[in-house]
Amino acid sequence: MALTIPCTTSEVVSIGDYLEHVRSKVDLRDVDSLATSAPMLRALANDRALVVSELNRRIENYFASVPVPSAQTLMLGRDENFYVRANIWPAIGDMANGRAYQDQFAYNIAHDHNFSFLTVSYLGPGYETELYEYDYDKVEGYVGEPVDVRFVRKAKFGTGAVMLYRASRDVHVQYAPEELTITLNLMVALPESRTRDQFYFDLATKTISGYPNELQASVRASFVKLAGYAGDANTAELLSDLAARHSCRRTRLTAFEALCQQQPASAAQIWTQAAADPAPLVANAARRRLKDLERR
Fold first, then answer.
1. Which of 104, 106, 120, 207 is deepest in the core (most CB within 10 A)?
2. What is the rounded distance in angstroms from the CA atom of residue 16 to the CA atom of residue 37?
3. What is residue 195's DSSP assignment?
4. 265-286 pLDDT per residue, tens
5. For the chain, what is the largest distance between any 2 Cα atoms, rounded to a whole number of angstroms?
6. 193 by DSSP, 3-state: which?
7. pLDDT tens for residues 2-36?
8. Is there a contact between 58 and 74 (Cβ–Cβ < 8 Å)?
9. Which of 34, 38, 12 lies closest to 81 in space, CA to CA?
10. Distance CA 119, CA 196 (A)
11. pTM for the whole thing?
C-alpha cells in the first residue's frame, strides 16, 4: 500500500543538494530506496524561500512574454530520470466557485500513476485521500474491465509526513483541501513508465473507467488514430511497423485499428495478425473484431 513515512527534522537542504542526494544515493527503481530519501525531502520542504523564488521568477516572465506552463505545477529541478516539483492544490471553496476545475486537478477521481513518487506537505493544511491498491499485471487495460481494487485506508495528508506512492500499484482518490495547499514531489521518470498505462477507476463497479488525456500513451493513441483517417501509403507502412514492434500495448492496438480504417478490405488479415500479439489487451480485442467480421 502507499506508505506514510513520519518525518520530523529541522535540517534545511537546498534544491541542488537534494537533487545530488537523489542522483547519487537513491535507486529510483527500488521503492525501499525511495523511502529512505523521505527525510531529505522533508528537509527540502523546510526551505521556506524555495517556492517563493520560483513564483517570483514566473511573475517576472509575465513581463518578458515567456510562456508559462501549468498553473498547478512549479518545476524546481530535474535530472535524467527524475524531477522535483511543487504542486498547488486549490481549496474546496475555489472549486465550488468555479475558479478551478475538477478534471485539471483530478479531485474525487480514483486513479493510479505509472510512476512512483514521494510527496511532502509544504504549505497549507493538506488534504484527505482514500488509498486503494491493485495488481497491474493482472489487468488487460480496456475501459470497462473488472479490476480487483482493494480499499486500504483513508488518510489525512498534512505536515510532518512524507507519502510514497508506488507505480501501477497504489490507487487514490484525492479531495480538495479546506485551504490552498502546496506539496513538494519527487517524481520518478524512468523510460519504462512511458509505455505503461495509467487508469481512472469506477469504484462502485470496480472497473476501469478511462485514461488520463495527458498520458503519453493517450497522446500517442490520438495521433495514431488521426493517421488512420488522414494518412497515405507511407503512413500505412509506419502504422504496420508500430503495430508489430511498439512496446506500448495500447499504441499497438490503436495502430491495428488505424490500419483497418485505412484498409478496410484487409481488416480480417490485419486482425488475424493482431490476434497473435502477446498482450491480452490487443489479442482479445482482435478476436472480438474477427467475430464481428464473421457475423457480417
1. 120
2. 15
3. G
4. 999 999 999 999 999 999 999 9
5. 71
6. helix
7. 888 888 889 999 999 999 999 999 999 999 999 99
8. yes
9. 34
10. 21
11. 0.83
